[in-house]
Amino acid sequence: MSFASLLLAATVSVNFNSDIGKFRPELHSSSYGPTIAGCSQKTIDEIKEMGFKSARTHDWALANSNQRVCDYHHIFPIIHLDATNPSNYVFAATDYLLKRAREDVGTDIFFRLGVSIEHSGPKVHFNSLIPDDFDKVAEIFAGTVRHYNHGWANGHKWGIKYWEIWNEPDNDNTMWCLKDGDLGVGSTPEEKAKDKARRDKLRMELFCKFYVTCLKRLKSEFPDIKVGGPALCYMREDYFRALLTECKEAQVAPDFISWHQYTNHPQTIMTSIERGRKLCDEMGFKDCELIINEWHYLGPRGWGGVWSSDPEILAKTWQGPGSHNGIDSSCFNLTVLSKFQTSKLDQAFYYGCFYTGAWGYKNSFGNKYKIYHGLKMFSSIVHSLSTICESKGEGTVTVIAGKSKNGRSRGILVTDYMGTDKEIVVKIDGVEDGRQCWVIAHDNERDFEPVYVPFNDGKLVLKKTTEGSAAFTIWF
């Protein structure tokens, strides 16, 4: 390699002689799961190839149209009936769906108790209204746990461990809604802002009481499960402080807190984890787990690009390397997944619920997005290797490496997220010089394409086809 090319190369390192931890597959989970209808064996195989450890059930009611699944108003459709009577529950469709996820795909279940998101406008809500009777809903939640873990109501003994209370109660007009809407009213902008703040405060106060009511009810009957939530829109410290304060006063502790993160900056996600750990520790919840249960690349145009009706903005959002599910998105995923493995996070769920479309892994013609190939690439790492070895990235390049349980296989994932270098030099200790290796390339031009890269003088030189995002897996 010439001096000129060195100026356009990043240099990273791996030391297979130094072990630093264990791979954690639970940090590679998702909302992807089978559906009741339209889910072929091919689709099941595709989901399995992405290798998710667990499946979170949020929004599954939306992905299974015309079916009563998962959401509490589907499981217990007539709210004024007796919640302790098993004949008042409708479990059949959800039973079938969870059975397919467990047996056909092989994922654990992370059960979201509550409702799916309701994009119906500021004052039109049916399922996401704040419940009138918190104790009644808590009893419905208890009946659901009892059915799936203790065989109640002709149920199962599946031992589902994680149960999450609600989803995004801090999201306006979609998830925890006042009957007259969440937006402020008034004759001036100042009056509207003041009324909006009043409504937000009321919604938060009501949710904290609801959360504690449900948490106490579930932990009293099922001490062996883990209960938490509430999947806030982001690491919102003021909301979490209010929630944990309410828990302290009620003398009950959540087993985990959860939140979401949509961004195109990997460090934003990692910082949120540090903030979450610090917050829980400071408030006396040192055993409380941290879970990010929705995360996804959000391009430079943000939510405005995703929801835009402007053809020009839509084209930039959905087409090209920087698009919502393009190569930048895929390498963002690989960067984040790699960093998760050595973070203080306990579980993570990549957001996707439908197979096709914006939040799917393929388009309506069945062509795979770049993100599918990247998620499959990470699966090969996290499920083949056991021990994480010391590595060091540089600039836009992230590296994670490890060994199999028997020590015979060694693998490396090198990800360059939006970098400008043309080559990446990987210096490797702990592998005999000249040993044969296999390199798989993933970039805007290639998907799982084997490339020949000689291993000499303790290093590999990985060549990118273009500037920008690219990833490589290396196997010895």
How much strand? 15-25%
Would you count the extended β strands for me? 17
Uncertain runs with pLDDT below 50, 5 residues or more? 1-6
| Count, helices | 13
Distance between the termini: 23 Å
Class from helix and strand fractions: alpha/beta
Helix and strand sequence: HEEHEHHHEHEHEHEHEHHHEHEEEEEEEE
Rg: 24 Å
In words, what does this structure look like?
By secondary structure, the chain is α/β, with parallel strands linked by helices. The strands form two sheets. A nine-stranded mixed beta sheet has the order 15-14-17-12-11-10-1-13-16, covered by helices on one side. Strands 2-9-8-7-6-5-4-3 form an eight-stranded parallel beta sheet. The chain has helices at 3-6, 41-50, 60-63, 72-75, 92-105, 134-150, 189-221, 237-250, 266-282, 302-307, 311-318, 327-340, 370-382; strands at residues 9-22, 29-30, 54-56, 108-113, 162-165, 226-232, 256-263, 289-297, 347-350, 387-392, 397-403, 410-416, 423-429, 438-443, 447-451, 459-463, 470-475. The model is unreliable at 1-6 (pLDDT under 50). It is globular, with a radius of gyration of 24 Å.
